[in-house]
Amino acid sequence: MFEEGVWRVALRGSATGEAAAFLSLVQREIPGAYRLAGFLLHDQTEAEDATQDALEKAWQAWPRLKTTDRFGAWFDRIVANVCYDRLRGRGRVRELELDEGFAALPAARDPFREALARDEIGQLVRTLPADQQIVVGLRYWRDLSVEEIAERLKLPAGTVKSRLHYAIRTLRAELDAQSRKALP
Amino acid sequence: MTLDPEIERRLRKIAEPPQPGVPDSVYRSAVQATEKRGKGMRFTFGRPRGRFGAVPAIGVALAVVLAVSLAGLLLSVRSNVAGGPSPSATASAASRTAVTPTPSLAETTPAESPGPTMVGIGFTTPGATTGWTGFSWTKLTADSPMLENVGFNPSHGVAQVLRWKGGFVATESVAQSWITALRGVSHGLWTSPDGQTWTAVTSIDATDLIVSVAPFGLLAMAVDPETRYPTAAWTSTDGVGWHKAGSPNMTGYLISIAGTDSGIVATLASPLPDSGWSSERFKVEFSTDGLNWTPETAFDLTAGTEGAWGPHVQTNAGRFYLMGTPHPMADGSNTTTFGDEMWLSGDGRNWTRSSGGYSFAADFIDFGRDGMVLHTIANDISLPLAYGLAWSADGGMTWHDARNGPLGAVSCTDCVTSPDGLISANGNVFLAVKTDGKKAWLSYDGHTWTPIAWTGGFPALSYSLVVMPRGVILGDSYGAAR
User: Would you tell me the crossing angle of helices A17-41 and A44-61 to the nearest 10 degrees?
Assistant: First the structure.
């Protein structure tokens, strides 16, 4: 007869206490943050790097967080800032030919590039200024309201609206231009 | 606010499901991020708030000076995460930091009996098996396989012991975490006939293992280091010789595995079609040989988002215990795998639901001679540090809420439900150690606790208490029972 027994170490997690609190909150935000970064940066590896950057910044800033009630918004803001810095670092992409853009893609499959390729507008977003890309990403890919975006970016709602307005107007113009180019 | 319906529709189309899944590496990076500050020692380091509780602050200067100069001796506690704004990180940490020097064990308690020694890459753990009245402490050498890797993740060192007919099996674990991707996998494996002399198993050419008791003896399931899908099963009848049995027909990420002489039960997770890992379905499977697995049909397991806790199985005294926690659905609503429930089985096939009776969700069980202690956890974002305890004296059929057991609650504002210390057991005796290292209790049923001499302190940066057959491992020290 077997005498089975399992003793479990009283180890709640790989981290405890303060780190545990941070991780328990941030783990729920990671999927949304990672996907926002991926859609904005158009690249899985960059999305991972950006999310990791955001996590490090969040952990460094954690002692200054006044309340955990709005942790998600707080973390979103960090992610948005990280993405913004990366987008600005790239410079604004202009005159991107869609075919060229896709032709230049490496052979390895990238889930974000595949998702962005569902519609040509996914590529056109890259032609926008970084601050407009951020509000577009938060609005349509993170599915946040104007007010929620304003809270995250610490901007007046009117500013968010105007950025969205200009972004959509630019995208419309680019699409129309693409359509005209496609005509024989 | 509608700007251009067509443009907006087309933008939203980009993010429609299926969405890219989140790689495990991203979750790991979250843990690694917390590690950096722990190692940097510029903020709070060591054991902050939470289940380790708080100790009185003694000021900015002392905190900073001690933090830098007395590494390994200090505890620091941030008592209130919702505290006021701080002008700088250092000041913030210091203003909320409580520091208590913890004397090194070697200084205060010279070993009274032969300490643990290395035997090849094995080790010995001397001490009494019964009638514990106290402990004789020895500081572990840096190369001891018993030594917990101080810090966060990965956490090495002996972390779990199984008892079986041939003696004992000790495993090393990289982590036990609520983040599914990080739940424990062993890199080290030792067997012992007497609980004192431990011999390393070197004949298994796999680095990531999950070990369980099985009808034929012991089963070591090798898993892919990245995906955690099972890749090979190793079996042993004596704990010494191991045989590579083949590849199990399991499909999914292995969460837990446990067995008795009746069979083996495993819990797994696998992604839902086209979801990447953004949604996953949990499974419970049964086997008698470790290779051929069949699904348990008793459970209608729901899907959840990544990061959710899957169901977890343990065994004791021939009985299986299966428990799960609520977890969020992809749409943000909450659902459950088993609810806050626990299911029991004598054969791994027919299951009976326990009566519950505890707060929060069942996490894992410690087993003792006359009872068991259930560790519960609130998977609630508003209670990020809510842990509790429950005890049972009837084999887990009915449970009684014990909340914090003998440890009392930690005193910080947003973690009031957590026990202030650690509780663990070795299948016979339970041991509870208060965070300040000044009090400890012994119990055989998990409900009636008796104070026990505890001169071992509570080593800084210690996150685990392992009750071995003849003593305890706590942080960087081994306490031989006497």
Answer: 140
- Is there a contact between A10 and B30 if contact means CB atoms under 8 Å apart? no
Question: Of B102, B98, B93, B108, nearest to B70 (Cα)?
Answer: B102
Domains detected in chain A: 17-182 (1.20.140.160)
Tell me whether residue B40 is in a domain: yes
- Residue B51 carries which DSSP code? G
Is the confidence metric ipTM above 0.95 for this complex? Answer: no
Any chain A CB within 8 A of the CB of B164?
yes
Strands B421-425 and B430-434, sheet pairing: antiparallel
Tens of pLDDT along chain B (482 residues) come to 667 889 999 999 888 887 787 777 787 777 777 765 433 222 222 222 222 222 222 222 222 222 222 222 222 222 222 222 222 222 222 222 222 223 333 333 334 445 666 555 789 999 999 999 999 998 888 777 777 644 333 445 787 788 898 999 988 765 443 333 334 566 778 999 999 999 989 888 887 888 999 999 999 999 887 677 899 999 999 999 999 999 999 988 888 899 999 999 998 877 666 544 445 677 889 999 999 999 887 765 655 443 445 678 899 999 999 887 544 444 444 444 444 578 899 999 998 888 877 777 777 899 999 999 998 876 544 444 567 899 999 999 999 988 788 988 766 544 446 788 888 899 999 999 987 778 899 999 999 999 998 887 665 545 578 899 999 988 778 999 99
- Say whether B276 and A111 touch across the interface (CB within 8 A): yes
Q: Do B367 and A140 touch (CB under 8 A)?
A: no
CA atoms of B65 and B42, how far apart (whole Å): 11
CA B21, CA B37: separation in Å to the nearest integer?
Answer: 28
Q: Judged by CB atoms within 8 Å, which residues 99-138 of B form the interface with A?
A: none
Q: Is the pTM of this model over 0.80?
A: no
Taking CB atoms and an 8 Å limit, are A136 and B11 in contact across chains?
A: yes
**Structure token digits, residue B449:** 């606790």
Number of domains in chain B: 1
B27, B33, B51: residue with CB nearest A12 = B51
Contact B153 A14 (CB under 8 A): yes
Q: Could you say which of A1, A2, A119 has the minimum Cβ distance to residue B14? A: A119
Q: Is the residue at B221 inside a domain?
A: no
A-chain CB neighbours of B309 within 8 Å are none
Smallest CA–CA distance from A109 into chain B, residue: B20
